[in-house]
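Entry 14. Structure prediction run on the chain below.
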Amino acid sequence: MIALAAAIVAVSVGGWMRHQATRWMDRESTIAMKQEQLVRLRALLGQADAVRDSVVARDARYAAMPRLVTARSAAAAGAEVQTLVQDEAQSAGVSVQSLDIAGDAETLGAIAMVPVTVTAIGDIHGVTAWLHALHGGPRLLDIRELTITPNSALRGEPLQVSMTLRAPFVGGAP
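Output returned:
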């Protein structure tokens, strides 16, 4: 009988100890995970000033760079966009075949949109550089349609680009 009681106590104590060991391992695992989180959060806090400074500098650059064309008329805005598109194309080694201010400006509240159609030819590197320059350039351009096709009639495997875009502008002194 005493042996049976001792066996029951031993099994009970063993189960209790196993339960305590499991709880202890879970707690240690949670503590380790929380310590890793704390290290990552401290690292982020250490970078907060640098991130804030970077955001402030970026905002200052964008504020200093007017993205909308400011012109007295749609024709003047179209001329500025024409110059921009041609200059960026020339810098990228792309040849503009045609550039038309395509119709009347659409009005969206205080902002008008000058429609422009462009046809150009260039190699893959030039076309890529040109599109990148137009996308990230000093003026906001809304590219509505873009078609790029190989032009096998010309040597050097150039690409023909057809693009329709809109340039938003506001009236006022340039």
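The longest helix spans residues 2-64.
Filed with the rest of this week's runs.
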